[in-house]
Amino acid sequence: MIITIDGPVATGKSTIAKKLAESIGFIFFDTGAMYRALTFGILKNQIDLSDPDTLQNYLDHFQFDIKVFHHDRHYFIDKEDVSKLIRGKEVTSSVSKVSAIKAVREKLMAIQRELAEGVNAVFEGRDMGTVVFPHANIKIFLTGRNDVRAKRRYDELTSKFPEETKELTLEKCLEEITKRDNYDSTREYSPLCQAEDAFVIDTSDLSIDEVVYKILEYKDTIKTKRPS
To answer: What is the mean pLDDT of each run of 10 residues along the chain (228 residues)?
Structure first.
């Protein structure tokens, strides 16, 4: 069974998807981390995004792996653990641009579909239920008020990166998520959008546990569709 969880930034997708997967014994895949890993590799190797041949050559040889240590997922590129590096400021500022490239999305879509073969999994991202797994058994689309999402984003960044975010403000976070929403939803290839058959959950006033419980209710009541 494949469950997809899509939605804009700071709606709690990763935390909710991970907890949901753990509660039902499914594998959890954070596709945002995959895009960050690829973005890190592109930056490290100084790949020119305006040169399609150079980019395609890098994608053809891109080696990505996920390993679990003490219940934490670690992301590897060419055997290098980049789990912490992909959360840095440079990757964060570049991942949207990289993710909008068709060749990049096609490469990672192929990897994601391969990872889904023969397993029960929760895939979290932005186009999981619309493009990558259009026949997923259950599709969830998370939303949230902009002010709530900006506060979540601010708290997350200042907690994880206190030195790098000394000048960060709540207003700046609101501006950035609004800009990111517009970019993701209007990009030409695989834009962020709600699947017609997705269950929509506004996470603004709900706890993580409450959202997971709602999804479990959907899982218990819906009839299994054909596998993706």
So the answer is: 96 96 95 96 96 97 90 90 91 92 96 96 96 96 97 92 91 94 91 95 97 93 53
Pairing of strands 121-125, 2-6: parallel
**pTM given for the model:** 0.91
Determine the pLDDT at residue 228: 44
**Contact (CB, 8 A) for 150 and 170:** yes
Distance, CA of 207 to CA of 114 (rounded, Å): 32
Q: How far apart are CA 2 and CA 120, in angstroms?
A: 6
